[in-house]
## 1
Amino acid sequence: MSEARSGINVSETELKNMDGYISPLIKNGQSVHHIMASHPDQFSYCEKSVYTYVKLKLLGVQFRDMPRMARIKPRKDKSIEHKVDKHCRIGQTYADYQQLLRNNPDTTFVEMDSVIDSIGGKVLLLILFFNCSLMLAFLRDRNTSQSVMDVFDGLFDTLGEETFKKTLSGTAW
């Protein structure tokens, strides 16, 4: 089934006929939509197919020959850098946190959160030390787990191993 959907669905002869008819009209300044709408009996394929053939450079025209297509910016690649397994959040809900506070009233806690202004923009990483009302804020370029690890690596390098462990365990306060 996948082989039937791969490649182009046009013969070499049809492609040459399409190129001979469409390319001069596009170079003359007409849009693909206008060409297809003006001559519906000439074509047995859709506009999207023509744009695909132009993109694959199978026709004698390019996107720069089409004024509107030359102005449209290519879409950004939204590849995901790192996905976190959702099973790691078991026992990590706010209700679990409240239960932990009730069960351990004399324990000091350090809380961490992210403040997001806009998706894809800069993000603040907040670290709150409850027992001394201290909040640290770190500006990150993106909201990824790697950027959080980079902040903690920087803290480790700055504070040293001993102070880092005491500070985040709450025993230094």
## 2
Amino acid sequence: MSVFRTPKKLKILFIATEAAPFARVGGLGSVMYSLPKALKDLGYDARVMIPRYLSINGNHHLKMEYEDLEVPTGNEEGPEHLICNVKRCDPGPDSEATVTTYFLENQEYYEQRANVYGYADDVVRWAVLSRGTLEFIRRNHNWTPDIIVSSDWQTALVPNYLKTIYAKDPVLSKIASVLTIHNLYYQAMFDHRYVSEMDFDDGHSAIPGFNNFRLEKLNFLRRGIMFADVFNTVSPNYAREIMTEDYGEMLDDLLRERRVFLSGILNGINYEVWDPRTNPHISFPFDVDHLDDRLKNKAILQERFGLPVKPEAFVVAIVSRLNPQKGLNLLFSIADTLLQELPMQLVVVGEGDSDFMSFFHNLEVRHPDQVATNLKFDTALPFLVFSGADIALVPSKFEPCGLTQMEAMRMGCIPIARKTGGLTDSVEDYDPDHGTGTGFVFERFDHNSLMITMVRAFENFRDKKKWRALQHRAMKQDFSWHNSAKKYVDLFSRAVEIHHSK
């Protein structure tokens, strides 16, 4: 047995490509805001490190933390080092930061880039971030973490670097590594489903230099899973699913091999933001005991989207990325029938693939009094939509966690969800005989199952007393980050113990 004892208050560094409020593209940015903050509220020293992009400017009052950091390139030819700076932003009255946040500066790879993602050399940019972070830690004596947490494939080289190049480093060798998989579908710059035998990365070769074309051939996520002390997904059910061939994205053998180091922890939502009593985007504040006020928001929603104001209408909302993962193609063959047969209104907010965008646009043209769309990203509309709609549609083909269903329930909007991933962990199917459940769940991924479930939801919607009780149960669910953060503390403590027992 190891004599090592886990520190009472661990020091944790999250390394990611985005973190709100500085840079947010998707759910990862929200997690990198809320989870470190929740850990800090529990008394832990949690910090974040991301690149300093062009959009992160002087308005954030950044201070220099480490100047002229030499980051080894590993190149066989060309410069041996890249020169970077590290700046920091601390919480305070003039700061948007909720935890200390570090920014890796490099003119070529970050400061000249307007976007977070989408560049041909992204694989180099993330390798620089991973190795630059480790060089900063080993050289900066002001603060050293006990744990480094990588997020998704972009920073999954960190555990690989730690176990190889830095295995004997007096500072870095003492640090445990954790990899959080937000979506197994994305593993590298290339599509891992179409890799020749010659280009297959088994994870055992040395990490190439930044200017070596072989760097683009690495499956970053595979390496992170292989080398991390522990790793987790963002829901318990998704952790089980990815060990199967159907969901394992060709890594199921490796995942089963390392299953003892795998955990699933459900993501949370920010209850300060998703509070129907105080959210500034909600016209009529309400809570679980004052749901009559919520009906006023339904009228506001209908007016905002140009739909007839009908309190009795069955308002179904889609707030989503419009792509195959989200399962909205199940509507292609049934949407017209549903709109013709049910007193239903459909509100769609989101953007994505052209075929989905065209489908919803044409549906709106065919049913102008029942369908309204906003086919572009909007940060404010989800609050308006979920505070007034009756149903949130989440028929995902696969879903590592999903936040939409939690956000909707918090606002009294009942989810229709497919039984997969984190939807399974967060939505309980409604049982009218026993008065239990928080939504309507279907299992088979086909349009008939979705249609039957939507009709079932509508029939129950007509019973206002039971529907009100269903809303009560949904709104009272606790998806706060406080609960998830405590489970992450257990995971981090386990990582430290495993690391120091080797």
## 3
Amino acid sequence: MNKHSKTLFNLLLLIFIYIFGWTSHSFSVSTEKPLKKVLLLDTIKTSKNLDVVLLNSLSTYYIGTNAQQGFEYDLLKNYADYLGVELNITTAHTIKEALQLVESINPDIVSAGIAKTAYKAKKYNFGPSYSEVQEQVVCYRWMKGPKRFPRDIEDLAGLKISVSEGTSYNETLNALIEDGFDINVTVSSELSSEELLTQVAAHTIDCTVVNSNIYSANIRYFPKIALAFSISGREQLGWILAQNSKELKSNMYAWLNNFNQSGSMGELKDHYFSYILFYDYYDTKMFYKRIKSRLPKYRKFFEKAGEKYDISWKLLAAISYQESHWNPNAKSFTGVRGLMMLTRDTAKLLKVKNRLDPKESITGGTKHIKQMLKNVPKRVKGENRLKFALAAYNIGLGHIYDAQTLARKLNLDDTSWSDLKKTLPLLAYKKYYKSLKYGYARGSEPVKYVESIYNYRNILHNIFVESKKESNLKNKDLK
């Protein structure tokens, strides 16, 4: 082979090797399966667990007398049920702790009543907004002298104010201080907003700032606090989601839209926050006094009747207080009498011989409530059922049926208390009641009646759960 032939042969060999190598590579690339990106939503559904951080507070999540509850817990529980998964809960005690857990454990969702401020929106991945609130200055009700009760931002000068670290209130007050307002604020890294409300009630501090939903949830427990003024415009509360959660976020938007449109959101907000509309400071203050002076005389009767008919004794006590203020000799202008304010005819049916006898009255009243519960239409479920029964105790089942009929005519949900609250007051208007079976009724009264009972019941729950905890702690100390 001459020199030129050898050169040509080498060149052709190199071309062949290049073509073979390129073809082989192309074939291998084309037969490789592309790596599938693992989506967070798919992981949640596969593992059957939704990892959430929840703020341990009255407005968010807590362990109640019988079960886990709280506005944001109920929301997330509904979403978990929608996905067909379980909630795996990690609790935080302050918003600062909740935000730290975003970084340290990377949960799927953080739910802590966090406002979508401009600062936080840049730092965190927020999901859909689920509630609207305002920041409110809350102060000790009886401030006097130089420390008078504030009515605007200028009045905050000279007052002792504290807020929880990591909150939107901290950001708002810092912005006001930068704008030149004289505000003496302490930022607490250890205390939650609820704990600071406790300090306001004890007048350890003069004021704090909390969101309107937190104030609404706590006002019944702290008669000595009062709303001074709102310090912000409307703000959106949102959940913080993990970073790789585009599909999860889209799914949550779809679920939340359905939850709102079905009326479930309105019903949930109504359950946790509506009683603020009926809050009466002086009535609540008197209620606290009578818990000490009157309730001990009758508590054992409430407990025994509650045990017999499977109804919470605190609910029975709340009904009795609403009816008679725990006065066994109470009498109304219509002739109803006793602790449970029974009519003569109702007492006869219940075989109550003496309406003024505390034990007989409580036992008879409890039996009557149990009957009301049984007579509420079976389509009405859960907490709605109890509220329907309480309203019936006040106004009679016939008017409850009329309110349901009216709800159906108005395309409302006749099994929802939040919708029945809209139709009951209409029973006082001829336009509505003239076509209904039981006619006129002062329908606004059972609405106030039910809300007041729930307010009293919740106060009793709070007092006696806390008392039990304190008793347990004392017992431990003695051992």
